[in-house]
Amino acid sequence: QVQLVESGGGLVQAGGSLRLSCSASKSISSIIAMGWYRQAPGKQRALVAWITQSGKFGYADSVKGRFTISSDYAKNTVNLQMTNLKSEDSAKYYCAANDGEGFERGYWGQGTQVTVSS
Question: Which SS3 state, helix, strand or coil, does residue 109 take?
Fold first, then answer.
């Protein structure tokens, strides 16, 4: 099992930046992939960014060029640096771990709220 704890959410003005962190209870190098999802009220949860244990990564089109995902193996942490934030980025952000059965059937954190004011 993996316990995940997110931090770093908050209120920011449009155009600003935030850095989210996800701390894992076990070595992230042993986890197939880590991801960040978000869910806004009335919308489906959507994958925002992911990074594999081999270092491959990807982003949703809506955040490409603005968000950067990274892994800190020494701290067993996955970070999401978000820049040039827009009001449509407002959502609850969740960290997820794919430990072999995909994200949906993997492990999830409790989420951290990001609110972007325009």
Answer: coil
